[in-house]
Write a structure and sequence with these properties.
The chain is α/β, with parallel strands linked by helices. The chain has a domain of 257 residues: Spore Coat Polysaccharide Biosynthesis Protein SpsA, Chain A. 50% of the residues lie in helices and 15% in strands. The protein has an eight-stranded mixed sheet, sandwiched between helices. Helix 1 packs across helix 6 and helix 1 crosses helix 10.
């Protein structure tokens, strides 16, 4: 029995260390001196582009979003903005209409009944964003702000017929000590770099970062009802069609990071539920795709999604092994992380912010969200109608 418990302990511990530390280091090493893609469009042969935004109650950010999209240096006759409002109840529609009246570059769908982001996208794709009119769609959130060359940097790679998705490089603003913006920045910047390296090594990473990515219009599937993470569903559909996903470091856009701990926890729980939905749908890609896709899917996604169970398994085995070998207590870090997170909780209550402690708490919170997301997935998702993260004041 004790041999089995020891094996369980080491497997759980190794997989956690591997997915968060060893795998990113391996990708960084293998990606050295490699290019993402050499086959790009020349300036006189650029594809037609639809910029696609689904919005609900985004009055705080939607004006800046649309203005930044219109200020692009991409040829004016080559792009159109499509925005669908999912029965917004704030001032979103009025803000959009004000800008629509100043330009012919925006097509506005004002839906009168809430149906969820996925259904808004399905309706827009079926009414106006056709494969005959557009070669590429840029899927983007309402709070993502473009640079002038963001669109060009995203779509130039579609000259390469092996690629299906090109992701933007999200930069962060409004970084503060209070809240979790520094920890979120650390996570997103490392995720972006890992996706860039995966693209260099395998000509594909495992999924798009849903805040902003470009995709061939002909590869966009109809999104099923109750799918919470439509970006991951679409990405996996692209991989299933044997097209690659890369991240372009120069396709820079900006995001105002969240400050509120509880709001971000709710968002991550929702994301986690959607991740398990997609795992259940696309698990066969582990062995029915090329080595690179299966390897990144397992190393980057599946192990992390199952991280809470590995932490729990390691901790339970630790409690069993401790009376036989006390040094096991020093080898597993779960108990230490819990203590550090609790200290941060106490310090935050008195307005003391320690970045390292907050990062530990962020990590544990992310894994708790994964665990609760799995429970919600197991119970069954009843609706995909979403409440966007509250924007910063």
């Amino acid at each position: 029995m004790i041999i089995f418990i020891k094996i369980l302990f080491w497997i759980c511990t190794f997989l956690l260390v591997y997915t968060y530390f060893l795998y990113p280091l391996l990708m960084s090493f293998l990606a050295k001196n490699k290019q993402i893609n050499k086959i790009v469009y020349s300036p006189n042969e650029l594809p037609t582009v639809a910029i696609v935004i689904a919005a609900y109650n985004e009055e705080k950010v939607i004006e800046d979003k649309l203005i930044s999209s219109l200020k692009t240096n991409y040829p004016s006759n080559k792009f159109q903005i499509f925005i669908g409002s999912d029965c917004s109840s704030d001032n979103t529609n009025a803000v959009i209409n004000k800008i629509v009246n100043t330009t012919d570059k925006i097509t506005f769908f004002n839906y009168k009944e809430r149906s969820g982001k996925q259904e808004v996208l399905n309706k827009m794709f079926s009414k106006g964003i056709s494969t005959e009119k557009f070669d590429v769609c840029i899927m983007t959130d309402a709070n993502i702000i473009f640079k002038e060359d963001t669109i060009h940097e995203l779509v130039k790679h579609f000259k390469n017929e092996t690629l299906g998705i090109v992701c933007a490089n999200i930069k962060n603003k409004n970084i503060k000590d209070k809240g979790i913006s520094k920890q979120e920045q650390f996570y997103i910047s490392n995720e972006n770099q890992l996706k860039i390296n995966e693209g260099k090594v395998f000509q594909s990473s495992i999924a798009a970062f849903g805040a902003c990515y470009a995709i061939r219009r002909k590869l966009i599937p109809k999104i099923p009802q109750n799918i919470l993470m439509e970006d991951f569903y679409i990405s996996m559909s692209v991989l299933k069609n044997k097209k690659g996903i890369i991240t372009e470091p120069n396709a820079i856009c900006f995001e105002d990071l969240p400050q509120n701990v509880s709001e971000e926890f709710k968002r991550k729980k929702r994301i986690s539920t959607g991740n398990f939905q997609n795992l259940f749908i696309y698990y066969k890609l582990l062995w029915k795709s090329n080595f690179g896709i299966g390897f990144t899917f397992f190393s980057h996604k599946i192990i992390r999604w199952l991280g809470p169970f590995f932490m729990l398994g390691g901790y339970i085995s630790l409690l069993y092994l401790y009376p036989f070998s006390p040094y096991y207590f020093l080898l597993h870090f779960t108990h230490l992380l819990i203590c550090l997170a609790f200290i941060d909780y106490i310090l935050m209550a008195v307005n003391i912010n320690v970045n390292l402690l907050r990062l530990v708490r962020y990590f544990l919170s992310m894994n708790l969200a994964l665990f609760l997301g799995f429970i919600k997935f197991a119970q069954g998702v009843k609706t995909n109608i979403w409440q966007p993260t509250k924007r910063n004041e």
